[in-house]
Every structure is written in structure tokens, then in C-alpha cells.
């Protein structure tokens, strides 16, 4: 049986089965939480029309049904790593891995390992005017 992979960057649209895996801090970085929390209709209503501006959301990886899917892999993490490196947002190495609620099933971790974690805290979906953060998402 194949393990179901998790996309670490989805919108709050119920079709993406979003779960909160972090909170967007005032500085535009993501503060991870240890256990995913399902984004309920009540939470979605309280957060407004774009809960992804407040929360980092994850959901099932849609693979070939996603606009980010290229050459049998998610193309988003590579672009986000390049952006984070270009903007010098993350250290060259991680002394220790940040806690992560989805690492065991994370698509980005499966593709890039610990290097994905360097960029991950800077990836937010539809960041608006948040300075210094990379943008990402799913189709």
C-alpha cells in the first residue's frame, strides 16, 4: 500500500481538505504546530475568505491533478528554495529540524529532505503585502 503524501501548502478551500499545521506570524514566517488541526467551517468563517493568510494549511497531495506537478514531482519546493536562497531568508544549514506536524507524509520532505525545511518556514500561500516571504500554493 502506498503512503498518502501531504501537500504542505494548500488554500482554505474545503475541497483541499485543509488542516492547520502552522500560524503566520507578524514577520511573515510560519510557526509550526506539533499536531494538525482540521480547518472547520466555523474556523473558516472566523478567519475570513482567505484563512491561508492566517494559517499554514496542508492537505492531500493531488500529484498530477495539481498545477505545481512537473516531471512526477512537486515543482513548488524547488522554486521556493531558490527564492529563499536568493533573498537570504534562511541559514545555509539547520542546526536542528523544526518541529513539523506532517514530516512523515510531507511531499516536500520526501523530495528534498532536510533542505526542504530551510525554505518551508518562509512559504505562505497568497501572502499579500507580507515582505520577505516566498509565495506558494496549489492549483
Automatic annotation (TrEMBL):
Gene source species: Paracraurococcus ruber
Name of this protein: Nitrogen fixation protein
